[in-house]
What does this fold into?
Amino acid sequence: MIPEIGQFALILALCLALVQTALPLAGAAAGRAEWMALARPAAAGQFVFVALAFGILEYAFLNDDFSVLFVAQHSNSALPVFYKFTAAWGGHEGSMLFWITVLAIWTLAVAAGSRSQPDEFSSRVLGVLGIVSSGIIAFALFTSNPFIRLASPPADGNDLNPLLQDPGMIIHPPMLYVGYVGMAVPFAFAVAALLTGRLDKNWAKWTRPWTVAAWLFLTCGITLGSWWSYYELGWGGWWFWDPVENSSFMPWLVATALLHSLAVTERRGIFKNWTVLLAIAAFSLSLLGTFLTRSGVLVSVHAFAADPTRGLFILGLLGAFSGGPLLLYAFRASSLEAEGGFKLVSREAFLLANNILLVIAAGAVLFGTLYPLVIDALKLGKISVGTPWFDAMFLVPTLPLAALLGVGMHSIWKTTSGATLVQRLIWPAGIAVAFGVTLPLLAYGKVSPLTAIATVIALWVCAAALLDPIRWWVLRRGAPLTRAQLGMCLAHFGVGVFVLGATFVSAYNVETAVAARAGDRFQVGGYEIVFRGVKHVESANFTAEEGEFEVLKDGRLVTTLSSQQRVYRVQRTETTEAAIDSRLGRDVFIALSKPLGNDAWSVRAQVKPLIRFLWLGPLLMALGGLLAVSDRRYRTVARESAAASRTVPAAGTT
Amino acid sequence: MWRYAIPLVVLAVIAALFYRGLELNPSYVPSALIGKPMPEFVLPTVADSETTLGSRDIAGKVALLNVWGTWCIECRHEHGFLLQLAKSGMPIYGLNLRDERPAALGWLATLGNPYVASASDVDGTVAVDWGVTAAPETFLIGRDGKILFKHISPLTAEVWRRDFVPLIKAQCGASEPGCPQLAAVRAP
Amino acid sequence: MTRLVAIVVGVLLATALRAADVEPPFDDPGLNQRYWGLIREIRCPLCMNESIADSKADVAADLRREVHRLLAEGKSDEEVKDFMSSRYGDFILYRPRVAPVTYALWAGPFVLLVVGSLVFWRIVRNRRDQPLGEDEPG
It folds into this structure.
């Protein structure tokens, strides 16, 4: 009975989404205020019914209602309550409902936060969001209904995929979804501006906070995914350039470009074409990612079960949601261009280079991800494009980008004196080169040219980012930093931290695999590991063999670690729970693998230098973004300019 | 002016690629050995560790090499069809992968033995030479000792008719030396 | 050193009883580094996008063993990769070969960089000649 209500709620949500789409958009075109006024109530109503549907799905999980097919496939009575809750997004149908819920929340937020905007504009924004909602809800209802019931329910469910039975499940997917579904907001702002025919600095001021917010969550989501796969999958890797990982990374790259492009549009009123295109591209890449993970077109460990019918539907949505705006863009773009000069050495020029390089980076990732598909479609055979290609090619645009980042931060609008820049930056540059070459050499005794270059660039970015804060706080020189500027420095510092971590863990990671018996000792990366033996462990829904290890350095005990080889009772899958000792400077990573017979076990051990920087860096980026968006400047200026724009009669320009 | 349409064109190309991609199977990887001579090997047989089975024994006739193991659940699904094929005159050789001899013999005794002989590949070295990824896999070998075709997953009558028979027919007429005396092959 | 020998002997004994999925580390650190590098670059032919270093599949273990054996025999990295691709096709290599079918792949990012530079130059050239406008508050 209750699951049927859930399905009905979803149908009502679809109806309201359609209302949210049709009437406000028609109203804006025809100038009818009463239709435009329906946007907010419709959005609120849609949210209520979507939340109800999602709530009912959770209710079904928490009550072990195995008559609901989705619950039967992804839950089990022995599953801990916490995981029953997170299992709602542990499979395709439920995760689509989650997608819809997140979009409804964003829509509600936009509806509430858009009161300072002219109705003609805000109703279009909500209308566009309504189109997206309608499309996705229709997709869920017609191809991926989570409320399908079984006539004869099984006695117990199939259990949640053991890899997902982990605390990371509660934060990684939600953060990721909030992030890349959130890209629909700047997308809606961009399309609304194209429809209105007016794109000015006010538009940029309204759009920017939403973009930063979505970008923030996406940064956290991707970082959490990397960290989660590191400790959950048991082999010590943190990024695999897997198609599904790339699907979340490409929108991030474009969104970062969008953030920066919005800064230029807000300040000078130029780069409008760039900004609109980037906003459309960011969301299109999100949809593309949704397509890749659910259609079976590419192979991935992270992909949901492949279904070409669903793939076709999403492809249709992608075509409509990207193609429509891009068609509109093709017609409107020439009228958007504005005058505004700048010289070669200027903040605008650096941000232009930033846009271009980030787009190249996203393009390269897309190219590498799709290339095997292209070759297969052209009947030229089957090839693989993996980490070696991506690692090498990704550096092509990003190393120059990082190098320019340090300079660009300190450039000023319109024109900057080269001499001033050199004078300011000579110290950070010098420090970077000096330490960048000597530190790895001192620590490891060897350094390859690429490692040296990357380390220099990483330190350069860090030093350049800290320059202004240090001048202001320590040296008491220069102008005080606003919160937004501090946020920018922090975020860019995070970039440097990340590059440093990535460089060191790639260049100086040490690993070994041994067959060990209780009492055996072996060496790895300057540490001695003593294998203490294995004991049997029983838990609610799995049994495990737990190996205990002592980690010693120079004869002294650093820590004791336990790694498990688990077998989950219901699905009979095996997982490895690695043992990790984390310090800022390095991780010691030990994974117990297979029994080899004769009381010997296969053990893998690694020492990973500076790996925490990989996640600390993006965290700092996100914090920087949070700081920037919390600056009241953003919101005050937006309100002032909105009031100003409302006194001008909203001419019914198309 | 026209440059504003470039993003739309890029989208159209990608969408067309995806549309085509929905019909393809990215996990299916055809064998790299097709058209090449079969890899040489000599292994003890499952039946008797003193006797050997090797590529020399298979060469000179149209034959099948079937990769199987007692741990392979899917192999049971094709076993009945293999017995039929063997009975109707098709020579089938087995490559027993990662099994222990007693278990393998027991399996054959219980379910029937369609193989002329089965080679015992305990550590999978020969399987690697043949580009085997898992079981069941079935190779079609021509009279000249070259690999004509490889099928992954259980062999069924439909696959046999669609993929194997045309290749066998192309190699031989009904009563040439080295050709199986199969009704399907003799039929027009 | 004796510990290492003990472990190696232990592994050899274990191998005698049952196929081990762990090859003993090489004494030469250079070889070890090449081994780990290679098994990261070879794709598990059966799995959903994993290297043979990370996969738990039987075929992955067999292939790791082959890589180990070939390195012990003194083969070069290229020879090991040729061994794999002649049996499983180029699909098994995560680093695509530089061949006509992949020229576009390897050239792509550089082409994008060239195009990007041209775009940059064109825009800057246009904007250089435009009036800078009055100053505005930030």
Summary: The first strand of chain B starts at residue 42 and ends at 44. Chain B has one domain: 31-186. The radius of gyration of chain B is 21 Å.
